[in-house]
Amino acid sequence: MTPSDEIFDIFDERMNPAGQASRSEVHARGLWHQTFHCWIVDPADGDTDAVLLFQERHPGKDTFPSLLDTSCAGHLLAGEAVEDGVRELEEELGLSVPFEALVPCGLFAEEDVISDACIDREFCHVFLHVNRQPLTQYRLQPEEVTGLYRVPLEQVRKLAQGTLSEPIRIAGVASDENGVPVPVERIVGPADFVPHPGAYYELVLKAIDRIGKSAL
């Protein structure tokens, strides 16, 4: 089955079930569907500030290719529960994490008009996972993720508030020709990130604040 043939549960704008449709039809018609988002937060350590991990989307993606996005995300297939979304952590980043280990941020309804032929309307189930492992220990899914970068929470707050005006330098890993993650650095600005609304980032940041400094 190709990605365009995947079948999703679809909903109306109030999240009432409305049947099922293929991925290609969902995006062509702008139908509401469900996704699983998990942000990995790497806690502060000594003089190092806490960071969120952003994945670099594969250049072949049908939405927002090559931009920096949620650490891990994917669609929920027809019949799947939110708990099934943890498979995305294993597939995209090589992390085996029980659903109970995730911190819920909340549900966020997001609409993106990519083009006349692609309208993405998602009910995003958003979670956090605290993880301290080095970036080189992640196993990136070649067809989905081309890099993984550390962005300090201070800069994420600026991104949420629309005040990230100056380019910033971020460190991360990118897959070499053998799929092995190697250290890299990039200089990025707002245009390099998927344009999530500020309220989306605030949902994540408030969950981090609820965790408290003891966890970070």
Automatic annotation (TrEMBL):
InterPro entries: NUDIX_hydrolase-like_dom_sf (IPR015797), NUDIX_hydrolase_dom (IPR000086). It comes from the Bacteria. Residues 31-176 form the Nudix hydrolase domain. This is NUDIX domain-containing protein.
